[in-house]
Amino acid sequence: MNSCWQRNVRCLLRKALQSLPYSPLAVLVPQMDWRFQLWLEAGLYDLGFFPLLPSWFESGCLRGDCSRMRVIEYWTMNYTTIFLDRDGVINRKRDDDYVKHWDEFEFLPGVKEALKILTEKNYRLIVVTNQRGIARGWMTMDDLHEIHARMIGELAQSGAEIIAIYCCPHDKDQCDCRKPQTGMFLQAQRDFPDLAFTESVLIGDSLSDMQAGAALGCRNILIGPPNSNDANYDCATSLLEAVTKYQL
């Protein structure tokens, strides 16, 4: 299915899913594992069998199956903006250290491909990053600007476009912009007045990212190793997996 057309139809899907009560598959095979059913019905939808989709909603809320409902919401919401943490999502974190210069910056595997996919789907990509190393004197704002300029340039060569970067240079408890505070996000909304947090996804690797996103009403995806999956959040092991797993 054409990716742009798929995104545009999601708002219509949301209304249709709520108006049609059940799916023939749910009736004929009531014990079918919902993950397989979701996969099968997505394929059938691609072939034009639109009426099968309502089973995605069938019994999910009644059973309290939060993980199922989160996957459903990804398919039925029309997200427009993706907020990205930087360290641990775009580039590799340095143990007990900060990325202070460009030669210490290392893209994580699959990041360029993932961001290229999101760019081609016309998402607005915004980086929001805590950079406490500046407050601690380990680096300067000029160092950070150079890192970001080179990061954006290299991503652009790969077909990915970051339209804005917001950073907090402050120490803990010194401002309203350091995540989990929401100051950077609110500044982004001032800069882009059409930005709606309910139509945004936040992808980060820390609980402070998830807390900021939850406070704003964003959809949240937690990046981390396989054994760190948190049942309270949608989880992925990498940015590329998040893009493919949640159909962004």
Question: How would you characterize the overall build of this protein?
Answer:
With 248 residues, the protein is of the alpha/beta class. The protein folds into 2 domains: 3-76, no CATH class; 81-245, Rossmann fold (3-Layer(aba) Sandwich). It contains 10 helices and 6 strands. It has a 6-stranded parallel sheet, with helices on both faces. Strand 4, helix 9 (207-216) and strand 5 form a beta-alpha-beta unit.
**What profile does the largest beta sheet have?**
6 strands, parallel
Number of domains: 2
Choose one word for the global shape.
globular
What is the strand tally? 6
Helical stretch count? 10
Q: What can be said about this structure in brief?
A:
The protein has 248 residues and is α/β, with parallel strands linked by helices.
SSE arrangement:
Elements: H1 3-19, H2 24-28, H3 34-46, H4 60-63, H5 66-76, E1 81-84, H6 111-120, E2 124-130, H7 141-157, E3 164-168, H8 183-191, E4 200-204, H9 207-216, E5 219-223, E6 234-236, H10 239-245
Parallel strand pairs: 1-2, 1-4, 2-3, 4-5, 5-6
Helix pairs in contact: 6-10
List keywords for this structure.
alpha/beta, 12% strand, Rossmann fold
